[in-house]
Amino acid sequence: MTADGPYVLRAQGLSKDFLGFTAVDKVDLNVRRGSIHALIGPNGAGKTTCFNLLTKFIEPSAGTILYEGQDITREGPAQVARRGIVRSFQISAVFAHLSVLENVRVALQRQLGTSMHFWKSEASLTPLNGQAMALLDQVGLTELARTPAVQLPYGRKRALEIATTLAMEPALMLLDEPTQGMGHEDVERVTQLIRKVSAGRTILMVEHNMNVVASIADTITVLQRGAILAEGSYAEVSRNPAVIEAYMGSTDEPLKGAH
To answer: Whole-model pTM?
Structure first.
């Protein structure tokens, strides 16, 4: 274990007020090392605000954030990214007219120390081809390496975004609605991909699709009106009367699915 025992990320009393409206209210969040931790809740529950606080896109009104036992509450997005906390959209913007391989090479370019050297020839990136292809193999895109990203189906584009996220060598991946807008086949493919890439990493994800959450999340934190309503395994939270009422407006039947 490292400095913070079994937990890689901890939030203590995390709060955010916007002009008198409390979007996140005294949240205590403990993300266990090596787990897939899902943050769920009805619309307006504060999930996105909580994610923005954890990745330092907005500053908390109160509370502390600890990563590997270090207080990162006042650090900026770039600082926490260098620590190994990588949010999918932070670095996974797909360049539509570059090939799938070229997109991953761009994400890997920082290893050469030339990420800001725009006058460098394309040949300078050739040493990254092997690593880029290995990442594409990991996400099932090897056969599409030469395809322009703009031609990818939506689900495959999300797989490319995950590959570019992996290129940053994250210790903690934060995935914001990874299956949003997908058809059933793509949802299943990306769900299995998340399970695969979680090996040796910690994943914190916001996700609406309860089937996805049920199948891969080790721990689920349920937010309502900015506060934690329940936490536990899917079996535990799906039978919690307060959670059922928050999603369904009734406590008559277990929570089975929500989008």
So the answer is: 0.86
